[in-house]
Amino acid sequence: MRKLILKFLPKKIKMLLKKIISIFQDFFFHKNINDKIDFLINETQNVKKILRENNLNTKYDTKPTQDSFIYQWENLLEGNDLLTDENFKNNVENFIINSTELDKNWFKNKKVLDLGCGMGRFSYGFLNLGADLTILDTDEKILTTTRSFLEKTNKKFKTICCDILEFQKSTEQYDLVWCYGVLHHTRDTYKGIKIISDLVKQQGKLFLMLYGHPTTREDFHEIAKYNYYRKKTEFMNFEKKKELLNTKFEKNEIHGMFDAISPKINDLFTFSEIKNVLMRNNFINIKQILIHRNFHIISTKK
User: Fold this and answer.
1) Dist CA 266 CA 57 (whole Å)
2) Alpha-carbon gap, residue 47 to 51, rounded angstroms
3) CB burial of residue 252 (10 Å; 0-12, 13-18, 19+)
4) Is the confidence at residue 118, as pLDDT, over 60?
5) Is 161 helix (H, G, I), strand (E, B) or coil?
6) pLDDT of residue 48
7) 111-115 vs 283-290, strand pairing mode
8) Are 73 and 259 in contact (CB under 8 A)?
9) Which member of 75, 230, 266, 273 has the greatest number of CB atoms within 10 A?
């Protein structure tokens, strides 16, 4: 039928229609489309890796991102996976144990650094596990919020207020450094890992959660949603962003969405890239704990 229709058309129109049909065939029957998409994704990942390897991605102004987190931890304290979420609060110790693959009794009196503690949702779990805990974040306002939650445990802990990338070399070392969802917001994750390496004792542990590149249809949909709201709220102040999210999402989702779209710096990585950086900084037994777009990684210092 197609050939019969083409037979009576002018030559230029025939050629154009054949080209259009070929494009649609490529699209609908996936002729090489997946290969082309994979190629573009790999090229993008490689470009980002080259920029990081050559310190060409470190010119970002980090203040807007830091200000976003200060606002977030002062004004958005309710939601999923926070200490105001009773289910999370009751299960945070198990989450830590599963994420580190360490026995519950291991934590007793171990020196633990919760680096980028936020409101202290994991700090709370470490205190309940009996750890000798130090919490670190970039601003005293954040640490004030954290103290208000943790002091209810009646357990002692120490605090450090500084930017991890400006952390001065210290003789203090830890049995475990826990760094959940922090380094990909710093502008220089490689430098962050190098600094953290000096803070981990020999045979000590490092846990990282870092954003990964999308790989599944669901991942791409998730990233597309974040990018849509990032562009929509680009020129809004924090209060206006919160107001918009309040009209679009359930109350328990607002914190998570604000966390995803408001910070300006949101680096994405591959597991192999992070593994290579960890190896260069004397970490071994590097393992991805959770199969997820966001990497949950445990490793051991040589």
Assistant:
1) 12
2) 6
3) middle
4) yes
5) strand
6) 78
7) unpaired
8) no
9) 273
Cα distance between residue 106 and residue 81, in whole Å: 24
For residue 290, give the 3-state DSSP assignment: strand
Question: Would you say how long the chain is, in residues?
Answer: 302
* Distance between CA atoms of residues 251 and 199, nearest Å: 38
Residue 32 has pLDDT above 80, yes or no: no
Tell me the two tokens of residue 151. 């002091």
At 209 the three-state DSSP class reads strand
| Lowest-confidence region among 18-32, 123-137, 168-182 | 18-32
Does 4 score more than 60 pLDDT?
Answer: no
Alpha carbon distance 162, 169 (integer Å):
12
Residue 159 predicted with pLDDT over 90: yes
According to the model, what pLDDT value does residue 30 have? 55
Q: Answer yes or no: are the C-beta atoms of 186 and 62 closer than 8 Å.
A: yes
Residue with the two structure tokens 């929509």: 232
Which phi and psi (to 5°) does residue 201 adopt?
A: -60, 160
Residue type, 181: G
Instruction: Please state, as a whole number, how many other Cβ atoms lie within 10 Å of the Cβ of residue 79.
Output: 20
Q: Tell me the C-alpha distance between 175 and 154, whole Å.
A: 23
pTM equals 0.85
Is residue 271 a contact partner of residue 212, using CB atoms and an 8 Å limit?
Answer: yes
- Type of residue numbered 278: L
- Tell me the mean pLDDT in the region 278-298: 95
211 φ/ψ angles, rounded to the nearest 5 degrees = -65, 135
Q: Residues 145, 174: contact at Cβ < 8 Å?
A: no
